[in-house]
Write a structure and sequence with these properties.
The mean pLDDT is 94. Helices cover 44% and strands 17% of the residues. It is elongated. The chain is an alpha/beta fold. A hairpin with a 2-residue loop joins strand 3 and strand 4. Bound molecules: adenosine-5'-diphosphate. The site of adenosine-5'-diphosphate (ADP) has 17 residues, from helix 2, helix 7 and helix 9. InterPro entries: ATPase_dyneun-rel_AAA, CbbQ/NirQ/NorQ/GpvN, CbbQ_C, P-loop_NTPase. GO terms for molecular function: ATP binding; ATP hydrolysis activity. Belongs to the CbbQ/NirQ/NorQ/GpvN family. This is AAA family ATPase.
């Protein structure tokens, strides 16, 4: 069996995921970018010994991209399953990342799959795929990016059990940074302190604040030999803003700490 990817729990989300999977309920994970949503799903799929099919949704993603299409080649036309149809047939966990980005027609295929019918109608072939009990649909979205046009419709969100993830507390985040980067505790601690200080700044013209992902990136640069400040500037400050004044303010927060 393949190794289970490391995931440090923020609360009791692993138990919730497992119960939802057993009860054949789809799951909606809400949370800011870089807070561990993808890693969590990877971890749970490995724990439950299910294949994982991940789709990063974007504004051009259509129902056909998810379900499949006829491909023409060598003088014949052949049906080719999209990732969602493949996941249903495999009894996999299907993770649709940033689902609100996808085109609206995708909800038509998600609805019958996300309620107790658990079917994926493939209009083009006339097939109706019945999801096996092992299949699970997991979607995520970032409420921070949500705008009035793009929020999930109540009829969609009410089909899902919901879970909110934020950034982990300092103790858990320290364990994550240490495990993911191999840095000694003192340096990992500095990164976690920097994140705490940056997160406490009020808006600061930032769309998003320092995520666990950014801390891990900075930590990896440090572990590879880059000085701490340079690593944090590149992996955290410049990743968060293009504005010189804001970058300066973030650098000052860093210099106050180390
Ligand atoms: P998201 O999907 O929410 O954008 P990811 O799951 O891709 O975020 O997390 C980004 C990175 O942060 C991961 O690759 C991992 O290194 C680290 N990470 C964040 N949270 C955790 C966690 N709880 N346990 C282990 N690693 C984590």
């Amino acid at each position: 069996m393949s190794e289970i990817p490391f995931y440090a729990q923020q609360g009791s989300e692993c138990g919730l995921f497992e119960h939802a999977w057993r009860q054949q309920l789809p799951l909606l994970i809400k949370g800011p970018t870089g807070c561990g949503k993808t890693r969590f799903v990877e971890h749970m799929a490995a724990r439950l010994q299910r294949p994982l099919v991940t789709v990063s949704c974007h504004d051009d993603l259509s129902a056909a991209d998810l379900v499949g299409r006829f491909l023409i080649g060598n003088g014949s036309t052949q049906w080719s399953d999209g990732p969602l149809a493949r996941a249903v047939r495999l009894g996999a966990i299907c993770y649709l990342d940033e689902v609100v980005e996808a085109r609206k027609d995708t909800t038509v295929v998600l609805h019958p799959l996300a309620d107790d019918r658990r079917i994926l109608p493939i209009e083009r072939t006339g097939e109706q795929l019945q999801a096996p009990p092992e299949f699970m649909l997991v979607i995520s979205y970032n409420p921070g990016y949500q705008n009035l046009l793009k929020g999930l419709k109540p009829s969609t969100r009410q089909r899902f059990v919901a879970l909110s993830l934020g950034y982990p507390n300092a103790e858990v985040e320290l364990a994550i940074v240490q495990t993911e980067t191999g840095l000694p505790q003192t340096q990992a601690q500095q990164l976690v302190q920097l994140a705490k200080a940056l997160r406490s700044l009020s808006d600061q013209d930032l769309e998003e604040t320092a995520s666990t992902r950014l801390l891990v990136s900075a930590g990896r640069l440090v572990a590879s030999g880059l000085p701490m400040r340079q690593a944090c500037h590149a992996a955290i400050v410049d990743a968060l803003t293009d504005d010189a004044t804001t970058a300066q303010a973030l650098d000052e927060v860093m210099r106050a700490l180390f």
